[in-house]
Amino acid sequence: MKNILIHGLGQNSKDWDTIKNELETREISPIVPDLFDLTKGRELDYPTVYQAFSEMSESYKDKLNLCGLSLGGLLALNYAIQYPKKINSLVLIGTPFEIPKGLLKFQNFVFKLIPKSAFQSMGVSKKDFIRLSKSMAELNFMESAATLDCPTLILCGAKDKTNMESAKRFHEAMKNSKLVIVEDSGHEVNKDNPRKLVSILQDFWVDN
Fold this sequence. Notes:
Radius of gyration: 16 Å
Low-confidence stretches: none
Strand order of the largest sheet: 1-2-3-4-5
């Protein structure tokens, strides 16, 4: 079994370091890809990121435990829908069932005001980041997610009001799912409450 941790849009693989290191002390060795490294040299948009993630996932012969935050959750869900037999379990953290178009427009406006150097620390150019963000506008996996029967853990930070409704709707739609609200955490659960997330992941993966 391969355990894969997938970062969100405003993160890179290093944002999982605390989780990864603690899991390794518990004899769980996760794979933590950097989405921007996987797509290096290609024009960045959602289909390109998904293709690169899918190619990486297909390279593993074992079944997969996929854990994704936000964009990472969308990629995990997308892959599970396309290749359900490859999936052992899913963990979706702060994952929207659809991208609110008003919020997306506002975010993209804000992104344009942020200096280029802020994006470079994530390993992506400002232009590519905004293109990727815009390309997610039409994503909606709710109907397809309802067809999945793999064990699914849906997590949402208690302070993540933007994605709370999505978490509840995914839980209602996915028959083999459990919803957990993570206290003392906003959207980035992996950074806000890593200790709690490690315990949740360990328990879920041991049980499944």
